[in-house]
């Protein structure tokens, strides 16, 4: 499958997706001469013309804009979105996006390869909140089973 990463997808994501999906052709908009700055309405038609089968984006508002929805529908391309939570910016935000894509994209691609038509995919975000991402135990206060007592 030939996948196009939208301009709003961080460039490091392209390398990660290439590692995940070695059997697929993964291209970031910034890697194509003259494609940077292409409006979404034009991007879907241009992507279809160039042989892409899916576009990956983190523009979750795209489906609320009638002209963009029409452009997506007309293209026939699969649309894969993930949410990059602005509340968690910087490294945490990028890490969350990478985790979301790594955990779900291979499953999405497998489903799309067998699809009988266009699909809209939303990858479920991994929760970056500290209390949901890690647990820290003080073995003195809450010793695990078989923890030696001195």
Automatic annotation (TrEMBL):
Locate the region Disordered. 131-150
Q: Which InterPro entries match?
A: VapC45_PIN-like
Stretches assigned to the VapC45 PIN like domain: 1-79
Record's compositionally biased regions (Pro residues): 141-150
Q: Which domain of life is it from?
A: Bacteria
Pfam families in UniProt: PIN_10
Report the protein name in the record: VapC45 PIN like domain-containing protein
Species the sequence originates in:
Streptomyces rameus
């Amino acid at each position: 499958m030939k996948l196009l990463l939208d301009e709003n997808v961080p460039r490091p994501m392209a390398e990660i997706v290439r590692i995940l999906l070695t059997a697929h052709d993964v291209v970031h908009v910034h890697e194509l001469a003259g494609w940077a700055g292409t409006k979404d309405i034009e991007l879907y038609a241009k992507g279809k013309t160039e042989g892409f089968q899916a576009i990956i984006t983190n523009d979750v508002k795209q489906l609320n804009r009638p002209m963009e929805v029409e452009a997506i529908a007309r293209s026939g391309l699969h649309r894969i979105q993930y949410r990059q939570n602005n509340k968690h910016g910087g490294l945490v935000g990028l890490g969350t996006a990478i985790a979301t894509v790594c955990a779900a994209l291979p499953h999405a691609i497998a489903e799309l390869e067998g699809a009988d038509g266009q699909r809209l995919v939303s990858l479920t975000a991994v929760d970056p909140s500290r209390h949901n991402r890690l647990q820290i135990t003080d073995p003195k206060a809450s010793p695990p089973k078989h923890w030696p007592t001195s």
